[in-house]
Amino acid sequence: DSGVTQTPKHLITATGQRVTLRCSPRSGDLSVYWYQQSLDQGLQFLIHYYNGEERAKGNILERFSAQQFPDLHSELNLSSLELGDSALYFCASSVEGIGPGSDTQYFGPGTRLTVL
Amino acid sequence: DAKTTQPTSMDCAEGRAANLPCNHSTISGNEYVYWYRQIHSQGPQYIIHGLKNNETNEMASLIITEDRKSSTLILPHATLRDTAVYYCIVRVADSNYQLIWGAGTKLIIKP
């Protein structure tokens, strides 16, 4: 158990809908990261938040947005869903995550999103 | 693009040491090498990381060459539960220190 929690575990929805995925980081971690993993693909970095502020963006679509709240949990919002958005979505957290040095990311169990 | 190259797949007999190689020839002096693994569709699991020196923990050992252009992850006594995709990642400055994931090595432990 990494200490990172994600809800829900599974989500089935229809095209055009909007969903929210939730992530609670490990106690004491200030950084939260979101990744997408499509079937048999590697992990694609989406976005990184540090202490409530956006730090870096990866290959995140404009239909997707995220935020990190004062209690440090994070939510990933996916809207106007398309079939191709079906994937595993992972959240990770780390103590800091900014600048050089050693900073290990710990991953949650993921949310499996199926868009029908 | 990922800054590392790994073999696509490897086999190892149960009980033997599994040695997984990784090339990172363009690594910079302050960039760390991380290893993770992903069992089926579970969340990636952190294994070990290092900068210059060899490292060992309860899961594995990491051997980094003196020129830092390559490394080897060693699972000393592989079990069937070690079957997974193993990712070697360099945490690079020019990606704002994000982890850029490659395709990894599919390690299959055979009885």
- How is the largest sheet of chain B built, in terms of strand order? 1-9-8-3-4
pLDDT average of chain A, as an integer?
A: 94
Name the poorly predicted regions of chain B: none
Mean pLDDT of chain B: 93
Helix/strand-derived category of chain A reads mainly beta
Low-pLDDT stretches of chain A: none
Termini separation of chain A (Å)? 31 Å
C-alpha Rg of chain B (nearest Å):
13 Å
Count up the helices of chain B.
0
- How many helices of chain A? The count is 0
- Please identify the oligomeric state: heterodimer
Strand segment tally of chain B = 9
**What is the 3D form of chain B?**
globular
The greatest interface here is: A-B, 31 and 25 residues
Shape of chain A: globular
Proportion of residues in helical segments of chain B: under 10%
Relative helix content of chain A: under 10%
Distance between the termini of chain B: 35 Å
Describe the protein.
The complex is a heterodimer of chains A (116) and B (111). Chain A has strands spanning 5-7, 10-13, 19-24, 31-37, 44-50, 53-57, 64-68, 74-78, 87-94, 106-107, 111-115. Chain A has 116 residues and is mainly β. In chain A, strand 7 and strand 8 (74-78) form a beta hairpin. Helices cover 0% and strands 49% of the residues of chain A. In chain A, strands 2, 4, 5, 6, 9, 10 and 11 form a seven-stranded mixed beta sheet that branches. Chain A is globular and about 40 Å long. Chain A has no helices and eleven strands. In chain B, the strands form two sheets. Chain B has a five-stranded mixed beta sheet with strand order 1-9-8-3-4, with no helix packed on it. Chain B has a four-stranded antiparallel beta sheet with strand order 2-7-6-5, with no helix packed on it. Chain B contains no helices and nine strands. Chain B has 111 residues and is mostly beta strands. In chain B, strand 5 (55-56) and strand 6 form a beta hairpin. The model of chain B has no long low-confidence stretch (mean pLDDT 93). Helix content of chain B is 0%, strand content 43%. At the A-B interface, strand 4, strand 5, strand 9 and strand 10 of A face strand 4 of B.
